[in-house]
Amino acid sequence: MNWKRAIGLDNLSEEYAFARSESTGYTSAQKIPDHWVPTTCGYCSVGCGIEIGVKEGRAIASRPFAMHPVNRGKLCPKGLSEHYTIDTENRAKYPLLRKAGKLVRVSWDEALDVMVERFRATQAKYGPESLGVLSTGQLVTEEFYTLGKLVQLGFGTNNYDGNTTLCMASAVSGYKISFGSDGPPGAYEDMQSADVVLLIGANLADNHPILCQYLEANRNKTLIVADPRVSKTAMMADIHLPLKPRSDLALLNGIAHILIRYNLIDRDYIDKHTAGFAELERFLDSYTPEYVAEITGLSQEIIFKTALLYGRAKAGFIGWTMGVNHSTLGTATVNAICNLALLTGHIGRAGASPFSITGQCNAMGTREAGFTSSLPGYRKFDKGKDRAELAAIWGVDESRLPAKRGLAYPDIVEAAVAKKIHALWIIATNPLVSYPNQDVLRHGLSNLDFLVVQDGYHPTPTTELADLVLPAAIWGEKEGTYTNSERRVSKVNKAVEPVGEARSDFNIFLEIAEKLGCRNELYPGWTTVEDAFNEWRRVSQGRLCDYSGISYGLLAEHGAVQWPFSEGADPKCTSRLYSDGEFQTSDGRAKLVCTDWVPFPEQPNSSYPFVLNTGRTVEHWHTRTKTKEVPILERLSPRAWLEMNPRDAKRLGMRSHDSVDVVSRRGSVRGVELRLTEITAPGQVFMPFHFAETNVNEVTQDAFDPISREPNYKQCAVRVERSGANA
Ligand code: SF4
Does residue 204 have its Cβ closer than 6 Å to ligand 1? Predict the structure, then answer.
């Protein structure tokens, strides 16, 4: 005890002292930092500029980075409280190795020796492909680039994927099929300059809140929101289309049918820049308003109105997120969205874009620089020229680059179940909350000989199962870059030292390479992340995602710039892809794709009468590992809930706040609080997916898009019982 306190003097005056902050006014003196460090938000892909307030080496405040072009001086509740995520009880501080069944603290040297030895032994016994790697959208781009080389050229496996397959893989696959390459064509500014904005399965108000200011600033738009729920974003709309679950593909085909039938298409654009119009016209013949109304549950009038508004718009914007992607029809639906943009020429101009709004802060970075669904720089696995070019830049034999992608995320899990993957390295993701049908995942993980989990947090449901836990530095503790949904590259800066013995993922990768004996070959002379960035600039040069003109100095000066950005480009310029009508396909033409609607895989029946929809809430981030440690966010939303329409509840004799169980063919979630609301239509229920304690993924389905391999999280058949009814 302090001596002043021991003799009864007031020693808390410092704690209670107030002072004046330039950003918030009169406040606690303890909230006044010594200095502010500019960086980029580490949660979602909006990519807001943020400043971390540092006092005596600790992060104590967050505020908007006023000069950043994305957020224009605003942050959402997660961004405003982000500094709380750094110094939390559940941070992973030391390497932990399982010995005699228990995770015990070991040195970094021992941890990495064991990891490399076990991975090598596994690969020697079962072949190189018996090692799988599951990464994330949370690292900086430089780390993705470094990791991709390490996995492919160091460990020699291409069974490498990221949790981005759980969120944006269908957007990637759809863009590749329609335009020949990944890469969202538009910019946020387009939401401000479009005269018609159509959002499909995109609840921006909860999931990308800062984007709403672009919509609010556009007074002349018509906002159309297609969503089975009356989400917060649907409440902002001029027209809400409460379509039946997973009928969006039929709606889009129906709109295309009307556009063609009433000549609301841009013939000139179609003739010059697309392929496949005649087939598409024939294919769409059956998608009459009558047929589409039947599938979607919407009136023919509202389908017509939507088509006419979009077709007659000077600049039409279509935005989408997980409502489209989380489906066995995700890729097909993305192609149908791209069809609408191509038929009308609503692409490559101000206000005109088919625009996927991504999930994680740097999902885009892994798509650009990673080794998962493409080779770095959006190069194609199956294109010899791309492989040869990359091998030449790296000075390695071309045969070391795979000619096809390895297993995607769900296929790695399936391979673990089938005992084909024997060792797994999971980086900055928590599948024991986020993966659908948890039972299958648990089975796969229990089959492994060795599981390494590298994460900033421990314990999590996933680290608790690990044989080895590697503690990683997180946002605020390391440097690099993120790319946001509009291809804008922002600097990420270190504000404080990593907790305990945690190390940046970049340093961990270099040290593993050292142990493997490939550091000098793969990373010659590298000591900092800027070394990785500079090599990445060369690798991306001349590609669609060209970073060659970007430097750390330029980012410090301008806050953030959009790629493609070659030497001498204007940092203030808004860039759009395909403005010249030249696409990344072999003939330069975009493809019009025929994509047929089919019902979602698990239809409700008398035993499982509800369609369960899952999603997010503004207060939490993905598996809640971080946000449950942020007092204000956790108090606002401390537990999961199940939304049900009051008419269904009346029929079942249930009331608001009842404790209920949600049961599917795969499992159940017990003790969920019931919320009765007209937000959710009769026959449907909704539950957020953030909560490990009541994990909705105990009941979701392991059905996947056949092309992107993204899970069908959004619809499965469940019944709802009062808790304890069958006890
Ligand atoms: S909108 Fe996204 S990027 Fe912006 S502050 Fe919120 S979580 Fe961070």
Answer: no
